[in-house]
Amino acid sequence: MTIDPLHVTSRVTRHFLSAILENNMVNFCAVVGCSKRSDRDNGVSFFRVPAEILHQGQRTCELSRKRRLLWLARIHRVDLKFAKFTQICTKHFVTGKPASLYD
Fold this sequence. Notes:
Elements: H1 11-21, E1 46-48, H2 58-75, E2 87-89
Organism: Amphimedon queenslandica
GO molecular function, one term: DNA binding
Keywords: DNA-binding, Metal-binding, Zinc, Zinc-finger
């Protein structure tokens, strides 16, 4: 399925979709002191801070909450306002990627 940005009604939404489809969005690592960026550092992947998972059982909710809080604590950012969009680069993971929730 392809999305044609010209058929989207909102100009802002159209611009946002165009940027995504053209892959023009730049990712930055949120860890203090890290300067990795997707537009200049080839081979670097970025991972969003995991969300708290609700409505899938108490254990999953607790694990996902602890995991999210751990990620946010390790970033060492007191100025962080938009954690939903915050990303961490591969440099900060032992295996180059985050573990799954139940690992």
